[in-house]
Amino acid sequence: MLRRSVLVGVASLLLTAAPLVAAGETMRGTSLLLAASKDDVAAIKILLADGVQIDARDDSGATALLVATHVNGIEAARALIEAGADVNAKDKIEDSPYLYAGARGHLDILKMTLAHGADLKSINRYGGTALIPASERGHVETVRTLIEAGVDVDHVNRLGWTALLEAIILGDGGKRHQKIVDLLVKAGADVNLADGKGVTPLQHARAYGHDAIERILAVAGAH
């Protein structure tokens, strides 16, 4: 009877301890996410050495690495990536450290993700590669880096647009977008690949009054 009582007591203690352990892990994961948001490398290294799960997530599904990428925390991102953080781990809206760095022009972090297994074929919630929003937002060096990495320059997103079309339709026609169009053309982008309504890049450039871009396309054989 005494032995059974002891066993019951041990079982009860374990059941009580389990939620406490889980809560402790959650708190430590939260601490890692907070350290990442502050680009606090020292805290990150201490927490990882203490066994915190490196890919713990917040309520949005973001890992510490994605949180660091959100704030362009280069050193935090470096520490996490070198410790094995997943550069392709997506949150609930389909952003990953690689995709977000590309879209926002966080070039240093982007290069680190590319050096540590970034999936060049991964797509965001709009069905686009990292190259498409980078082209739209005028991140010239990011576009150059992604092209050199081998991202498909003619990938079409759910809107029916390529990187070239987004640079023209959503860009301002200025020097940054002119350079991006030139980079895409020289990388072999199909200058006659139309959108879902059959409108070509050249037609869009004319419609938006992007004269310099129109000339780049015309020289490349656009019609």
UniProtKB/TrEMBL annotation:
Gene3D superfamilies assigned: Ankyrin repeat-containing domain (1.25.40.20)
Signal peptide range: 1-22
ANK repeats: 27-59, 60-92, 93-125, 126-158, 159-196
Pfam family, one: Ank_2
InterPro entries given in the database record: Ankyrin_rpt, Ankyrin_rpt-contain_sf
PROSITE patterns per UniProt: ANK_REP_REGION, ANK_REPEAT
SUPFAM superfamilies in the cross-refs: Ankyrin repeat
Superkingdom as given in the UniProt entry: Bacteria
Alphabetical UniProt keywords: ANK repeat, Repeat, Signal
Protein known as: Uncharacterized protein
Source species: Nitrobacter vulgaris
Phylogenetic placement of the source organism: Bacteria, Pseudomonadati, Pseudomonadota, Alphaproteobacteria, Hyphomicrobiales
